[in-house]
Design brief:
Length: about 220
Amino acid sequence: MWRQTLRLTFYLYVVLLCVMYLTEGVITFVTLSRATAAAAALLIGFSFALSGFCYYWDFLDSKIGLRKYLGLMGFWLALAYSLLMLVIDPDRYFFGFLKNFWTADFVLGLVAIAFLAFMAYVSRDSMMRKLGPHRWRMALRWGYVAWLLLAIRAAIIEQDVWIAYFRTLDGFPPPRLLLSLYVVAIILFRLSVEVSKYVNGNRRPDVRADPPAPF
């Protein structure tokens, strides 16, 4: 599972770097960090969406075991991006940590990373046995909150850039805007599974939406 996840992560990272090079015309340390953040968001999204795809369709059932590994890889990349920010912008994220602590950038980012770290911790099989399947799955769903917080953080940080783009619709959309729309789409897709289960009165004997070892 880890081998498949690492291979997918590598291909995804290369594609993201190519896209950023085509749009920005240069590859820098900042570009590498942005690709890391984008890969993290996409992998976590794949992890969240996989259960929904397996609920509605059967062709990905054999891949449901990847959900945990995709989520964990996404978490580690998100953590790596957070650490890279200390190097890229030390005045704000290292020396100015206390000064900027209560900004939306810091509060939302730190809370989201804390939730994702909690998910990574409880994703272990031993925690499932300790918490019980129901409470374990409920604990893991805090990841959706973390993901949504990151989308809100992006909207607050880049609101001027997004507004300027929507006024002209000129050029390639801001990457964080695309990722935020991706986050919202995945969350709505996952909610549709819950709505479907509620409407059908949970009559469908399908456990694929909550696999035995999710992220």
